[in-house]
Design brief:
Elements: H1 13-20, H2 26-38, H3 40-61, H4 77-94, E1 105-109, E2 119-120, E3 124-131, E4 139-146, E5 151-158, E6 163-172, E7 175-182, E8 188-196
Parallel strand pairs: 1-3, 2-8
Antiparallel strand pairs: 3-6, 4-5, 4-7, 7-8
Length: 197
């Protein structure tokens, strides 16, 4: 039976964790995704959960042995070993269900009036292709901000042949974004809209 979520009520952290691990059946998943499209607080909570999962994955890969001087005393060794094994098994059981990293989607950005705002799928990074026919081939700074003006990504890019290409590495959640193009001196030159849904 699918659970319906009211617009005014936020999703519980347990529900978002189950969703992040892919343990939610399709009808309920659709309802959760519908809520996530409009609720920034739940989007942020899901982002924190995803970040925690990635940190746990990284920690299991980077686990190093303790130096000889700080090894636990012999009588604690069986408990420490058992705890480490249990934690490793728990993390290993959770890893296969983590959502895969999605490929970047190409987005053509042009400063033309009356053109519909380009769209990409949510949770995908963006391969931004910016056409700047009236700007010289030079270094620029590109910034991606969310609908509330918070910086999502910022980096340098160089125009070549009146085009700029930027691979924005962070997967964009559902929402409206603005891609801003600045000169090296910090002067805002262009602003492009981008929808992620």
């Amino acid at each position: 039976m699918a659970t319906k979520f009211k617009f005014g009520a936020h999703l519980s952290e347990e529900t978002l964790e189950e969703y992040a691990f892919g343990r939610v059946l399709e009808p309920e998943a659709a309802s959760i995704e519908e809520h996530l499209l409009v609720c920034e607080q739940c989007q942020d909570t899901l982002g924190d959960i995803d970040e925690y999962i990635l940190l746990m994955k990284a920690a299991t890969r980077e686990q190093a042995p303790l130096p000889a001087l700080v090894r636990p005393k012999r009588r604690l060794a069986p408990y420490v070993a058992a705890g480490t094994i249990a934690a490793g098994v728990a993390v290993a059981a959770l890893l296969p269900s983590v959502r895969p990293v999605r490929p970047a989607e190409t987005v053509e950005l042009q400063s033309l009036r009356g053109v519909e705002m380009p769209r990409i799928h949510a949770d995908h990074p963006a391969d931004l292709r910016i056409t700047v026919p009236d700007l010289p081939d030079a270094p620029y700074r590109v910034e991606v901000v969310d609908g509330s003006g918070g910086t999502v990504w910022s980096g340098r890019a160089v125009a070549s042949g009146r085009r700029i290409r930027v691979l924005e590495p962070k997967a964009l959640r559902a929402g409206t974004y603005w891609v801003r193009l600045y000169s090296e001196k910090g002067e805002l030159l262009r602003e492009f809209g981008l929808e992620s849904s």
